[in-house]
Fold this protein.
Amino acid sequence: MPSSTSPNLRQRLAPVLFLALLTAAFLSLVTAAHLASRPIVEQSRLRYLQRAVLEAAGWSVPPRADELADLFASRARLLPEEPDGPFAVVQDPQGRDDRVVFLEEGRGLWGPIRAAVAFSSLEGSLAGIAWIAHNETPGLGARIEEPEFRRQFRGKRPPLKLAPLGRPDAGDRSTMQAITGATISSQAVLELINRAASRFKPSLEHVAPTEPDMILSL
């Protein structure tokens, strides 16, 4: 005798099976979209990285992606991955190794601050800094993007310390001006620069130093 519960069981399972098939289809679409967009995301990430390295080294970066890639290929040399090693060496317009660039990270207010930090291959002083990524507050911590803030680091000699608030550093090469109201962001920048500086001297074996007058503008 057929069970009277079979139709009820099928009715109860039907929505479950439908939802399972719908979920599988949705996940397949999401996975396909992710795989399709991955090359675009990676290319965008690479452009941000190349731009930051060149800007930190003092090069004026072209707006077009192909020109950016050509400039990076002609002037930057990636180095083998080593613990605490530099990321790249960047040449000056005469083709001489001129800047040693490190990738560093600091803990900002809303997440990590990632930066490219460049040093003069001869003097050991800072040549420049450029941001790869950050989530700092607009109008406060995000002011680390401002050219005036970034320019202050050229020629500085780490380890750096924060200058007293409201008192200019008056040419002191070992201090940096913090951003008013953005203590955490300023401290994060200070610490990542000092960490990069601690890795600089051992990296000199990778470069052929150049004359001291090659300080390129941001």
User: Anything to note?
Assistant: The radius of gyration is 25 Å. The longest strand covers residues 97-107. Confidence is low (pLDDT under 50) at residues 211-218.
